[in-house]
Amino acid sequence: LIFGLFGASIMGAFVAYFSTRLRDIYFSITTLVFAQIFWVIVFTWTDVTGGENGLVFSPPRLSLLGLFPADFTPLSMHWFTLAVVALCYLALRRITQSSFGMVLQAIRENEERARAIGYKIEYHKMMAVMLSAICAGIAGALYGIFNAYAAPDYFFFFQSGETIIYNVMGGIGTLVGPIVGAGAFILLKELFSTFWSPEYYLIPVGLLFTLMVMFMPQGLLGFLRHRLNR
């Protein structure tokens, strides 16, 4: 988990150095290009990554600073993942409420005004990308531990696309929104996969996602807040 966090932060800094100099759709395209570059590297560097076969490994033992080691079980993995997610949420919540987080919100609302005030826009955007990369690295490490397997498909743009869907479905600009969106997406995925084959179940999911973007741009969380405040 520590190595995954460290590696993700390095890759995030590398990508952020180039992508944060761009804005809007150009920023998104640049990050997608880097994701595909990393996927090609992982897919072809067979001596290290195993290529298309991936890597099979034994899950590490669960311990706290080397004390009380124990093997991972489905139940312990569940609670361990929940604890890591809770810690990440609390850390991100603290960051968003700090002066650094306030600057990020100012950049989101009006980048030119924030630049005119004197904030270092590129620095703050780089740190934001690195934070997101660290969270993605933690998620990837947990996913690998759970499956005892790491495949190059994890680097494919489909994974990035699903993450974007989580955010849009749940509500952009919130911390709880992506969690709600991920839960809703997985439920829809499991529901439709019982009626359609794996090749076609994403069609109704995509249609629902398109309708949500058109009629519920604030996401599920924003929609529920609006309904409750009426």
From TrEMBL:
Q: Does the keyword Manganese apply?
A: no
Q: Where can this protein be found?
A: Cell membrane
Q: Which residues cross the membrane?
A: 25-46, 66-92, 128-152, 164-188, 200-224
* Primary localization: membrane
Q: What InterPro entries does this protein's entry cite?
A: ABC_transp_permease, LivM-like
What keywords would UniProt list here?
Cell membrane, Membrane, Transmembrane, Transmembrane helix
Protein name, per record? Branched-chain amino acid ABC transporter permease
Say which species the protein is native to: Candidatus Entotheonella gemina
